[in-house]
Amino acid sequence: MTQIAKETLLASFNAGIHLDGRKLTEYRKLTITTNVSRSAEGSARVLLGDTDIIVGVKLALEKPYPDTPEKGNLMVNAELRPLSNPRFEVGPPGDEAVEIARVVDRGVREGEAIDARALCVKPGELVWSVMIDICTINAAGGLIDASGIGALTALINAKYPEHTEAVVHYEKRTTKSLPLAHQPLPVTVFKIGEHFLVDPLPEEEEHVDARLTIALTEKNHISALQKGGSAPLSKEDIYKMAEIAVKASQELRKQILREK
Asked: I need a labelling partner for 152 at 20 to 30 A (CA). Which of 53, 92, 110, 131 fits?
């Protein structure tokens, strides 16, 4: 970034706005479309500014994990496609993809979004596995939050497929929803200099000193934390970021519920 561009960025932050004129704690335009995949049991497309992702939920009858014989399984995968951003490469998941998948997984799992025991069909033998797949179409910032929004929306809208014993008929869906107990949602708050903001533009995100992703339930209980960036965060910073995250999650959740 040139000195002039950096001065413009700081001047904008000093005025309390993003480079595009939004308030620092305001997200870009969010559009959510549900049931965009015919092969998934639940799906959502999330447009956050220029960022475009699809999240799908697949269900399968499988053996439970040995240490949780009476609980269903949960898996989250993020695929950052090279066509969505030139910094992504073909091959095994990179660090960013792994982080996104883990943060979304941790928020859903530790937030007890799904009643895992209700996914059990036969203890020790057969349970429902819930698989969340995240795929980028265009990556222009805000991937963790967009992925979390998509995952929660897809889970809310997912329906069980018809099945008999261990045979699943994926071409037919029932009206039965997943046993959701809570609705954890990740909000990432960024720190640039002395300024705190959400959903930075890509050119703003390049100069982030630190970020903190906070997954919150509908009752504002924290289910997961993920710190990023090289700069340390003080106790006061964390309190401030948590305050911003609580307010932001409440606004985001309103739009998600409208898409239910």
From this structure: 92
78 close to 134: Cβ distance less than 8 angstroms: yes
Predicted local confidence at residue 108, as pLDDT: 97
Span 156-203, pLDDT tens digits: 999 999 988 777 888 888 999 999 999 999 999 999 999 999 999 999
Which positions ≥6 away from 90 have C-beta within 8 Å?
Answer: 82
> What's the pLDDT at 8?
84
Query: Who contacts 42 (Cβ-Cβ below 8 Å, separation ≥6)?
Result: 34, 35, 56, 57, 154, 155, 156, 157, 158, 159, 178
The span from the CA of 203 to the CA of 196, in Å, is 16
The ranges assigned to domains in the chain are 22-258
Evaluate whether the domain defined by 22-258 bears CATH number 3.30.230.70: yes
Write out pLDDT tens, residues 21-47. Answer: 999 999 999 999 999 999 999 999 999
CA distance 254 to 8: 33
Structure tokens at 14: 């000093």
210-216/120-122 β-pairing:
unpaired
H or E segment and range at residue 12:
helix 3-14
Global pTM value: 0.94
Centre a 10 Å sphere on the Cβ of residue 96 and count the other Cβ atoms it contains: 16
- In residues, how long is the chain? 260
Interatomic CA distance for residues 215 and 224, integer angstroms: 5
Q: Token pair 């799906």 is at which residue?
A: 43
Maximum pairwise Cα distance, the chain? 66
Name which of 3, 19, 8, 7 is nearest 205 in CA terms: 19
Write the single-letter amino acid at 106. R
Query: Following CA atoms 223, 100, 93, 151 in sequence, which dihedral angle do they give, to the nearest 10 degrees?
Result: 90
